[in-house]
Amino acid sequence: MDISLSASFVNSKIDTYLAVNNMLSEKEIIEGCKKGKRRAQHALYNKYCGSMFGVALRYSRNKSEAEDVLQEAFIRIFKYIVAFEGRNEGSLTAWVKTIVINTTLSHNRNNKKHHYTEDVDDVQVGEKPVFDVSSDADLTQERKNMVIKAMQQLPDGYRTVFNLYSVEGYSHKEIAEILDISENTSKSQLSKARKYLRSLLGVKEPQKKKSKEWIPESLMS
């Protein structure tokens, strides 16, 4: 058999397979995953792997760690989707995201990476900002990438509290319950995280506290 013809045939089959997957409705994906159908599982993975990798990356130190977390998260998703009873549009996305976040928290907790008593003064911040976001030429995606890179340099406790409060929208009371810390500790960690990020990104301290305003809109999704 002609090798080039064989490769072309295989590629066409793959394209057809992916096209069919993309045609599955959310309901079909859910029901298929509950029955353990590989086609539905593949469709669910393709639907969320990109955006959920971004979520895992915000809580991780690097891409390799985020990849490990994402793999573990999808194992949990396929295992527990049988109990999913989402009735509203978008509920699947919220459910998947919750599992990814919980997986990252569990991963960090098991690896003892959270240090909620670390003082920001003990963290070495260079005299010059690591990233310069003052240029008008900066694009939204570029700013998003810079913020994520800066977040990865945060001490793990700072990064976790910052994500839960500033990005996910949890209250300090909820964060305290999730992480088994006091509300004051949550507030302190958030304040230190913001200070550290502003130093890394070269953002001036605001005269009035306006949370989230300096974070790219795309990072909030």
Account of the protein in words:
This protein has 221 residues and is mainly alpha-helical. It folds into 2 domains: 1-113, Rna Polymerase Sigma Factor, Chain: A (Orthogonal Bundle); 114-221, Arc Repressor Mutant, subunit A. 64% of the residues lie in helices and 0% in strands. The protein is built from 9 helices and no strands. The chain is elongated. Residues 1-5, 117-139 and 217-221 have low confidence and may be disordered.
Keywords:
single chain; 221 residues; mainly alpha; Rna Polymerase Sigma Factor, Chain: A; Arc Repressor Mutant, subunit A; 2 domains; 9 helices; elongated
CATH architecture descriptor name of the largest domain = Orthogonal Bundle
Strand content: under 5%
**CATH first level of the largest domain:** Mainly Alpha
Please give the domain count: 2
Taking all residues together, what is the mean pLDDT?
77
Helix coverage percent? 55-70%
- End-to-end distance: 49 Å
Give the overall silhouette: elongated
**Count of DSSP helices?**
9
What is the N-to-C succession of helices and strands?
A: HHHHHHHHH
CATH superfamily of the largest domain: RNA polymerase sigma factor, region 2, helix turn helix motif
CATH fold-level name of the largest domain:
Rna Polymerase Sigma Factor, Chain: A
Q: Gyration radius, to the nearest Å? A: 21 Å
Biggest sheet character? none
